[in-house]
Amino acid sequence: MIIKKVYLVTKTHLDLGYTDLAANILKQYIDSFIPEAIRIAKELNTENKKFVWTTGSWILNTALKKGTPLQVKSLFEAMKRGDIVAHALPFTTHTELMDEDTFRYGLDIIKKLDKQFGRNTVSAKMTDVPGHTIAMVPILREYGIKMLHIGVNESSAVPDVPDIFLWRFKDSEIVVVYNKSYGGNFSCEGIESMVAFCHTSDNCGPVNLEQAKKNYDHYKELYPEAEIIASGLDEIANELWEIRDTLPVITSEIGDSWIHGSTTDPYKAASLRELMGLKSKWLEEGSLKRDSQEYEDFSDAILCLAEHTNGGDVKIMLSDYTNYLKEDFLKAKEKDIVENSVEALNAEEKIAARIISDIKEKEKPLAYSRIEGTWKEQREYISLSLSKLTNTHKEEAEKVLSSLIPNASFDSSLDKPCNNIVTGTFSLSDYLLTLNDNGGITLSKQGKIILSSPEKGSLIEYVSHNIEDVNEFFETYNRPEVRGVNWAYGDFGRPAFSLTKDKFPSGRFHYVIKSLKESKDSVIISLSTEKEISSKLGAPRDIQVKFSVQQEKFLIEMIWTGKDPNRIQEETIFRLYPLTDNRSIHFKKLGSYINPYDIVYNGNRNCSAVMDVKFSNSKGSYKIKSVHSPLVSLGKGKIMRFDNNYEDVKKDGISFILHNNIWGTNFPLWYSDNAYFRFEISPE
Fold first, then answer.
1. What is the C-alpha to C-alpha distance for residues 417 and 527, in angstroms, rounded to an integer?
2. What average pLDDT score do residues 614-631 get?
């Protein structure tokens, strides 16, 4: 292949947090990284473009709003010259967490910048998160985006797709470039150009002046006959678009194999969904206008709740590989001192000691309060969004959000177990609800069955994972070449966790009904599990579920109380059994219904973040809307077995994973708040 042009793309990966508090990261970009990139460009770009710095649109838009007058002037001029360019997306997101309006707002930022600087941005980039939903394709094309580059975290499974392909959904298509790292060199048959990526790591800023010179000189020497052009991604996007008809076509979903992190903080996940719902409601009723400052500021804060950073790096902020068992963990957390035992440091080929040795002195101290502080900061985007509202909107939002961490259950009289529980069938409006002893639901409306629980089917289950589960997940999800790499095991494994073998209960535990109360308009059940599962682990001690009907919708509301923090990997699962088959169920993402049985190999076939689940049977079509919890899984609920097998909805139903702490870093590792969830079931 003859290369006549080399596009030299220099980019930094933004984490709004992770390496430090998000507030410090933002300040670092505005005060240091952006000015440094401008300085390098000024020095090198005297005759032709030798250095151009590319980043997402949000950080540049924010810098133009929050920088000093001198910083804003300097950045404005650099963007006018094309020394600093934005790609079309605000930053890397967990895209499935957003509704259409929030995703569109992220793209509105680049349209605003394009108008300011006389550009037409046609390229977008996601970095770190291994995959995204195909539902964004029509929206990207609507905004004129021709190419999406996805650079994958170097430990994570890479979806099995061509390096460059045409991603087609409905009547839309975009070119997608996939890379096994944040960004590597790429070209394509049919063009005479290539991209040379000079990608720096998480929050590292641009390359320095000397490295920028070396990068340019290196490719000039490597391709002496080619024109070396420092640029963003638009140039290659336009060229690939012209040959798109020659590219392989993918029509399957990819999904996000990190999306299970979305329910590590159920309150944050629920708040995001409620805030997006309120935004849509206010827009529809006309009390919020898209061209208002309130809409822009409110949407900007909501957008940050979907950014892919959800807390600090556990390796440099905690690194406690000794205190996993609940009693030890709670004592260590109370002391707020990290003291690793010699046994833990020497276990598993000294992986814990190796990780700790990688910590730089400036990155210390290690402390429980420090890592918890980063999770608390991520919740502050909720407060920030409220602060941008008018008083009327703010009061409405505060009232809604206050219900998400309830002080008590629905009915305290149900707290005591009842010896004579009468389960069976209950009539609520024109719905018939049948409950078994485990809370499993069979539901019909006017004789048409909607849900059909097996005889022993559970409504609520708690899963506790042991060292075998941890090892299976690491070996099936992570690439073979990283299995001895310190940071990879710190992020995706549990160093020295083998020392806890057989020291705590593990497996799947179901809740059973301990009391029940029927009234004219509702049925409330109280459920509990084995006391040991709550005392030694983190299973909520009490769960109440309320069934009622409102405007043709069958409502299921749930409150848990008495959940202790727990470091051992756990899941709390809400199970339903739609009367359907694998061909007749679809997940709604970004306004479009996706087939969960058509996902590429090494995409996420285990779970998805959805707005609702639609299914049908011979009697009709139905929808299950999860108002607060985004994460749904086919079958019993599966995260830690990354085997690429589809689970059987006809046999095992679907599972909403209300909470989990599977992630080893970046997401909250324990949770102890009370929680409220709401589900709505209705005919379509």
1. 9
2. 98
Q: Which class for 59: exposed (0-12), middle (13-18), buried (19 or more C-beta within 10 A)?
A: buried
Per DSSP (E only), the strands in 188-314 are: 193-202, 227-230, 249-250
d(CA 311, CA 389): 26
Q: Is 277 exposed, middle or buried (0-12, 13-18, 19+ CB in 10 A)?
A: middle
3-state secondary structure of 597: coil
- Predicted TM-score of the model (pTM): 0.97
CA distance 127 to 140: 17
Do 15 and 164 lie in a common domain?
yes
Cα–Cα distance measured from residue 485 to residue 495, given in angstroms and rounded to the nearest whole number: 12
Find residue 179's DSSP bridge partners: 151
Site of tokens 């308009």: 521
Question: Which residue(s) pair with 445 in the sheet?
Answer: 431, 448
Task: Give the domain CATH number at 182.
Answer: 3.20.110.10
Per-residue pLDDT tens over the stretch 489-504 = 999 999 999 999 999 9
> Are 98 and 171 members of one domain?
yes
Which residues face 623 on adjacent strands?
Answer: 614, 682
Sequence-ordered list of residues with C-beta below 8 angstroms from that of 546, at least 6 positions apart, any chain:
410, 522, 523, 524, 555, 556, 557, 558
Q: What's the whole-number average pLDDT of the chain?
A: 97
Where would I find the H helices in 403-466?
A: none
Quote the pLDDT of residue 182. 93
Q: Whole-angstrom Cα distance, residue 24 to residue 19? A: 10
- For residue 6, pLDDT beyond 90: yes
